[in-house]
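Follow-up to my earlier ticket, as requested here are the two runs.
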Amino acid sequence: MADDTTWRTVFEDAATRLGDRGEARRLVEEASGYRIAEAVDQQPTQRAMAHFDSMLERRAAGEPLQYVLGSWGFRSLDVHVDRRVLIPRPETEVVVERALEVIDAVGARTVVDLGTGSGVIALSIAMERAAVTVWATDASPDALDVTRANLAGVGRPGTRVRVAQGEWFDALPRELAGGVDVVVSNPPYVAESDVLPVEVSEWEPRHALIAGSSGLESIEHILREAPAWLTPRGAVVLEIGETQGDRARALASDFGSVAVHPDLAGRPRVLVARREP
């Protein structure tokens, strides 16, 4: 590093290499600890520059920006993410929005987030609805380590989140059967034959993406098992693939009310199935 190097020079070089000024800005801000406008005329320390170079090499090699940075925003949260969990996406923020509407409509007190991953759904609900206790489950102990790390960062609302390991409903204590107001999940919904972007298929955990040959296996399992756990007015809120609306709706035909809601791009994305209209 030359004696006269500033973060401005580092930023411009990174933007050229990555072909993305927004990503270059995020890397500079992470390494420097300052907003880009405050950092550009400062000289990087050797330690900060080493951190930046490491992140830049990882991103240039194709690792998703969220994993490179180690954290990402989701609603009101800033959560830790790494390769043990899926990257939080705007589509899932819409799932939380729909879940909150259902929680309010049924006066929910107990909510279960199945396959919680980084914990963003469970933690968002706990942060935004003070009367709710949330169970966050996952089959992956590695994913739950990330959940717990994020749980530690939310303060008092975190005391209303229970973490449990196991496959879907098997993670829950039996005494919850018949007492869950809302089940919410972003389950795997990709079919084995589906082609994913390399940045997804090469980096994100396969078990959290691929459901099976049809892509509906996890959705079907949750909808089949949920009634035994729900209260009489309980509901299920699921993220689904954009082509799965009609098939997912059919799988929920035993529920009293079923609707599929769009994401921010207008694509069918959220299945809401209630036991009572």
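Run two:
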Amino acid sequence: MVVEEKERLAREIVRRLHEAGYRAYFAGGYVRDLLLGRKGKDVDVATDAPLGEVRRLFPRTIEVGAQFGVLLVVEGGVSVEVARFRTDLGYEDGRHPVDVRFTGPEEDALRRDFTINGMFYDPIREEVVDFVGGQEDLRRRVVRAIGDPDRRFSEDRLRLLRAVRFAANLGFDIEERTFEAIRRHATTVTQVAWERIGEEIVRILTEGGARRGFELLDRAGLLAPVLPEVAALKGVEQSPDYHPEGDVFTHTMLMLGHLDGTTETLAWGVLLHDIGKPACAARVGQKITFYGHCTLGAEMAVAVCQRLKRSRATWERVAYLVRNHLRVLQAPKMRVSTLKRFLAEEGIDELLELVRIDALSSNGDLSYYEFCRRKREEFGREKLRPAPLLRGRDLLELGFRPGPLFGEILRAVEDAQLEGTLGSREEAVEWVERTYGHLRG
């Protein structure tokens, strides 16, 4: 609904600017998605109208970059970015222009990153305005830098990752000269703020084509500077009985191939689940072991997510997934109470999906995954974590003093409740009296 409201407002902005005698178009990624028959996530307007004229025509505006000719028009609870046609005059940090000069649409198109993002669309006349050959590159399914690719990437290092993201998400190839320029500039990508790098990696992981995206990152020389821990998975051998597919990197790429519009946390969990294996690898006879890789991997995953400025909630969940991704192997041997607690954990749905993808990308053994799913359905007829039969205040009433014994008793009562041997408060009180009464006082 928000996107539709933005489109409506953007059309109204273009209409009013046209009526006032100015040129105005939809710009950038929205035009690309429109021509591909995809639903755009946002819509921007580019115009030759001075910002003063935009303010005069629209009563509610917010300046977000007046020095670059950019403001937001706000109406009906939504906002649309309106920017003047411009050309950029030098870049100071491999990301932001030092100054700009206001121009016409052709010069504006020539400063943009890739031809497929450099087109305009007139929604009033329903015409595409294309100065850079973007329509032809859409037909050819290629990502091509506008003009000199070395210059485009020197201006904005983030474009190195954006090229990979567009190719992965759209299923396009990267044009040869553009790809070679990416390889030449790959080591400079870390000049960009890590938060922006993290955002691009997340979009590669979650917006489609994750496996292709990471294979392109590797081929382009971008993977090692950005995610050296993932690059280190290459060549780490695994026992063929469990992993006939090959080394840890191959296994991880196969897993990424099973991602399709997933959550950020599951995507990171898949990418980083075996990140501790290189440091834990050992050979015992013909067997290759990785003892401790889940624990170490969880610590490394946190470090990766923190470096890329992901949220605390994200890295906590990712650490849970990495630390516990082999725990499911113990599920058939667990006591009922332990299994119920395990299957009731927050994050279990993502953990089981990680387990499923892990199995599909190795020896194909889904038995542990299917056991847990089956038990969840079976336990679903009752609560996995029912309301406790006794609480601390009940133990106080029974004459027990607060201390370590409290936790021991409550845990034992919960175990018996989950096992089905205690079903009411009265039974629990009687059991506690019988089992722990001699320790009271």
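The only thing I checked on run two: The first helix runs from residue 2 to 19. Let me know what else you need.
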